[in-house]
Amino acid sequence: MGSTSAENAENNGSESVGRRSLMKRSAALGLVSVPAMSFLSACASGGGGEDSGEDTKGETSKDNPFGVKKGSKLDVVIFKGGYGDDYAKAWEADFQKKRGVTSTHTGTQEITGKLQPRFNAGNPPDIVDNSGAQKIKIDVLYKNGQLLDLAEVLDAPSVDDPSKKVRDTVIPGTLDPGLQEGKVVALNYIYTVWGLWYSGKLFQDKGWEVPQTWEDFLAICKDAKSEGIGGLAHQGKYPYYINVAIMDLIAKKGGLDAMKAIDNLDPKAFVGSDAALAAVEAVYEVVEKGYLMPGTNGLTHTESQTRWNQSKAVFITSGSWLENEQLKQTPEDFDMKFMPMPLLADSAMPFEAIRAGSGEPFIIPSKAKNLPGAKEFMRLMLSREWSTLFAKEANSLTILQDGVDPSVQLRPGTQSTVEASKAAGDNTFRFLYTEWYSEMDTAIQNASNELMAQRIQPKEWLKRAQAAVDKAAKDPAAKNNRRE
Amino acid sequence: MRKGQHRFVAGFLFIPVALYLIFVIWPYIQTFGYSLTDWKGQSQTFSFVGLDNYTALVQDDIFMGAIWHNILFLVFIPVITILLALFFAFMLNAGGRGRAGGVAGVAGSGFYKVVYFFPQVLSMAILAVLFGAVYRSDSGGMLNGLLVKLGLVDAGDPIEWLNEPDFVLWALILVVVWHGVGFYLVLFSAAMQSIPRDIYEAALIDGAGRAQSFFRITLPLLWDSVQTAWVYLGIAAMDMFILVSTMTSGEYGGGPDHASEVMSTVMMRNFLYYGKSGYACAMGVVMLLLTLIVSVVMLRATRRERVEF
Q1: Which residues in chain B have their CB less than 8 angstroms from residue A119's CB?
Q2: Region labeled Disordered — which residues (chain A) (predicted)?
């Protein structure tokens, strides 16, 4: 495109085209063409994915419903966080053995930094564990049409029992967090419970019982304070964690309706909700009475959890990744235990009710090069064999029903989560606004940070949380995210 | 120049200029283009929205607050750093008494020079971790531990330095100053070395004290270096991303409750976390403009007559 002008300029007055002018000429070409090319690529919207799936598609059969092609390649990116990435390496080795597909493996914590440029360029990996602090927000990816609708995988026959669909082999409700506008676009693979954690040993030493009501909980905090131990610790630098306590109290006090009011951006989700008022006042009571672990408001998750492991605090809020994350810091005889949030007076749900669901979203980019391979990989993830591999390597449960071989020995904390979820039965709940509305989530987290630092009062917290809800309700996408 | 030589020179200048245009100028133009769209940052699909992003920006309290924080940094970081660096550099180079006619540093100045330079060797990321431990919010933190030992602070109620809206900005300023003083000390030292000694000696004979020789001789002759330092520190104050994003709470920092927000953290949060990349590009354009204005104003304001010697 720029070649003619460059040549004309060069041919004026120069007798021969020597080496030097050739160099100059090529440089001129480069100058003109490079910006032009990047400008063109900037303008080319939504391009780049046309070749996907064609050269990687093989014959389909009963055992190979997606037509995985032997000898094709799979590009796997795994978040290397609390669960490590050894489990994925074990899967990939097995995938090569079973299906003849070799994989390139990337284990990283910088999901956004590494993948955003690739998504933008239309050159994403085939399967991604999109987790951690730097995950790419699912709602953002979805709105850009970058995610494959996983219905195909979920409706395929299960590896363990071909008469069943994959969809019917997972724990009910665990697919919900991957929903965007009614489609499952992310497979949240790990079964997680959220709530309070304590040391079985500390409880035994002090003769405490697991508190079932908020009064009993406060009584233990008071007892602990008199012995120079903090009552509740939380990961103050990340107010996400204290929101677990606040939101779970709201859900347990007000029932599923109170939870859905928040997810569905009800104009009375917080202001005008008795459950919300009672829950926030209850948490604030802990602050006011000085039952927080000193300094916990400014600590990172590892700092506060390590202090808790040193028995500087009785309780801490977290999800079931806590045990794995703290493996090195936990004393031998700590006896880590999980418990549901204690009950406020007149709660709609029983004490056993827990926030439970799935975490660690795996996604398949819609522009993946090896779509059949990625789909088959995900189908195998939901087989008992791979689920057991995961439990062994990552010390955690998956969303597959009875997905762990009984021969696998679980750690005490994980074991207590298994018991807690059995006791909970159908009494589980799970907020979804965190996946749907990032800005609202951040605003509520900021308000909680202020509440815990005693800079605002419960009433003000409710006002700010409601303002965040009202703002999110103006988002045009809000009408598509509804739960009944 | 001889005929043809122009072309010869131009040929060599071509590549650097081209590289500059492609890797420096072009991204700015691109960013401006994106700032007029509703780009979400995860694909090349977007539509043109005109100046909507800029009107939204003016009404965005968080971004406006961030600009004020940057301005606060802009006022205090260069002033404190340069004053301290000048003071130390003067003491190390011309503050000594009794030897060499008074034109030497205080005793042990060679050693101090090396020590002062140490912080400069550390990267910002390491600094953030280091000062994270200093400001830690329980008695395990260096500051709190010290204050608790001295009995000034109750161990049950330590000061949450980075979680206090009133402290957090000053805590950050201290880190930048601690980091920068050493470098500018060395810069000013080098400049001071080039000031002829006889000027000092003459002043000394005329009975000038330390303060007089500093304000009448050192500072005027150092003005070029101070000006350079001023512009550099000013640009650093407009950024502050690494420190704020790693040390303070919140997604890409800025906490508690936006109290330490700077333009770059608001931009990154919108760009990567909220997926409002077009909007974030508008912030980038505003940042560029403000930084340019700051550089120009600073260069103009500090312009003075050159002293020749």
Answers
A1: 42-43
A2: 1-20, 45-66
CATH architecture under which domain A194-354 falls:
3-Layer(aba) Sandwich (3.40)
Stretch(es) of chain A classified as CATH 3.40.190.10: 17-192+357-429, 194-354
In a domain, residue B14? The reply is no
The answer to whether residues A184 and A151 touch, using CB atoms and an 8 Å cutoff, is yes
B161: phi then psi, degrees, rounded to nearest 5: -50, -50
Yes or no, beta carbons of A307 and B158 under 8 Å apart: no
Is the predicted pLDDT of residue A20 greater than 60, yes or no?
Answer: no
For residue range A269-285, list pLDDT tens digits in order.
999 999 999 999 999 99
| Element of type H or E holding A102 | strand A102-108
* Domains in chain B, number: 1
Instruction: Answer whether B133 touches A (CB < 8 Å).
Output: no
Q: Which one-letter DSSP state was computed for residue A208?
A: P
CB distance A282 to A249 below 8 Å: yes
Whether the CB-CB separation of A388 and A408 falls below 8 Å is answered with yes
Q: Give CA–CA dist B177/B169, Å, rounded.
A: 12
Residue B255 lies in a domain: yes
Rounded to whole angstroms, how far apart are CA atoms A273 and A257?
Answer: 11
The CATH class of the A17-192+357-429 domain is: alpha beta
Q: Can you give the C-alpha Rg of chain A in angstroms? A: 27
- B137 contacts A295? CB cut-off 8 A: yes
Which helix (H) or strand (E) segment holds residue A107: the answer is: strand A102-108
Residue A288 corresponds to which tokens in the numbers above?
A: 């006011």
Supply the pTM of this predicted model.
0.81
CB A138 within 8 A of CB A481: no
Side chain identity at residue A37, one-letter code = M
**Tokens at A350, concatenated:** 């029983």
Q: Residue B181 sits in a domain of what CATH number?
A: 1.10.3720.10
Q: Judge whether B86 and B93 are in contact, CB under 8 Å.
A: no
Q: How far is A241 from chain B (nearest CA, A)?
A: 12
Report ipTM for this prediction. Answer: 0.85
Q: Is A98 exposed, middle or buried (0-12, 13-18, 19+ CB in 10 A)?
A: middle
From the list A324, A335, A305, the residue with the least C-alpha distance to A204 is: A335
Handedness of CA B67, B71, B72, B78 (dihedral sign): positive
Q: In this predicted model, what pLDDT tens digit does every residue of A433-483 receive, in sequence order?
A: 988 898 999 999 999 999 999 999 999 999 999 999 999 999 876 777 888
Asked if residue A470 lies in contact with residue A269, where contact means CB atoms within 8 angstroms, the answer is no
State the pLDDT confidence band at B103, using cuts at 50, 70 and 90: low
A-B Cβ pairs (cutoff 8 Å, strict): 151
B 166-195 → A contacts, CB under 8 A = none
Which chain B residues contact residue A438 at CB under 8 A? 273-275
Nearest-angstrom CA–CA distance, A349 and A347: 6
A242/A448 Cα distance (integer angstroms): 7
Residue-range definition of the domain harbouring residue B80: 58-308
In a domain, B18, yes or no: no
Provide φ and ψ at B41, rounded to 5°: 90, -5
- Within 13 Å and on the Cβ side, how many CA atoms surround A80? 11
Q: Which two tokens stand for residue A99?
A: 């299906």
- B55 in contact with A, Cβ within 8 Å: no
Look at residue B52 and tell me if it is in a domain.
no
Q: Give CA separation, A355 vs A244, A443, B88, B279, in Å.
A: 9, 21, 59, 35
Tokens describing residue B7: 């072309």
